[in-house]
Amino acid sequence: MAEVADSGVRKAKPSVSIGGPDPFGFDPVARERAKLFFRFLYKYYWRVEVEGLEHLPTEGPVLLAANHSGALPFDAAMISMAVEEEHPAHRIVRMLYAKFVTDLPGIGPLFNRLGGVEASTNNGATLLKRGEAVGIFPEGEEALGKPYHQAYCLRPFHTGVAHLSARHQAPIVPVAVIGAEETTRSLFRIPQLPRLLRVPFIPVPSLVYLLGPLGYIPLPTKWRIRFGPPLMPVRAYPRTPREQFLHERADYVRTEVQRLLDVGRLRRSTVIFG
Asked: Which of 116, 123, 131, 252 could form a disulfide with 111 if both were Cys (CB 3.0 to 4.6 A apart)?
């Protein structure tokens, strides 16, 4: 999952979603089947608690800007589950994923069938024009696999989230995911191998030294997902340079997500039991 980058809309076999045939290949039946697995993780393995879902509009275009954490993108799935299972409108969140996922054999098409969309300005715009709820990780792929001592310290946000909000008049709902950072404690990254495999990183979890490959299994930590009040879109660019405005707006969104993270972490007593 990642921040948007400028590229065209990827063509895929249409299916049905909001606003008619879906241009990205979303398959509601495949999503329902996958939810059997994700529902187990959501309810029983990570025992996700949700706060602030009332801040998410029941309809219309909206951006969910969240921190990205953990070695694997389960945070995207848990955000989607929280909204679809517990929001009164049961909205489907279309998560944007990084371009490198598209290059992994079979993974890109699978993500598309489950509702994911490759991150790009054009793709994000297409979803918002259709009135969709769009999940975005403004830190980009740089946030994945951070060393454990950098857990919950947000990287700078890219400006795509600010651009999409202003251009398409979509509110931004800040989202904080607490608990995912501890599922796979990464000690360091393998520097050379990712280039050969065309992935941004390969983390080395601490438990690998004790359990071997089993050390990559995510730990059953207690998760909390906090949705903050929506940040309403600015209707016109102020009399400041456009790029400066976008950077300032993105930094403001980052501040709000960081605030939700900091408060949420103070409220928990233990990593496993919350």
From this structure: 116
Domain with residue 249: its CATH number is 3.40.1130.10
Give the lowest-confidence range in 50-59, 194-203, 207-216. Answer: 194-203
What are φ and ψ of residue 43, in 5° steps?
Answer: -90, -35
Distance (Å) of CA 154 to CA 12, 50, 134, 159, 227: 33, 21, 20, 14, 16
Structure tokens that stand for 91 in this block: 């909205």
What's the token pair of residue 71?
């070695």
Supply the pTM of this predicted model.
Answer: 0.87
Contacts for 49 with CB less than 8 Å, ≥ 6 apart: 222, 223, 224, 225, 274
Q: Report d(CA 138, CA 1) in Å as an integer.
A: 9
Residue 66 and residue 176 in contact, taking contact as beta carbons nearer than 8 Å: yes
**Half-sphere exposure for 64 (CA within 13 Å, toward CB):** 31
Instruction: State the residue range of the domain holding 244.
Output: 45-267
Instruction: Using the CB atoms, write b or e for 131-143: b if 16+ within 10 Å.
Output: ebbbbbbbbbbbb
Condensed to tens digits (0 to 9), the pLDDT of residues 177-197 reads 999 988 877 665 555 555 655
The domain tally of the chain equals: 1
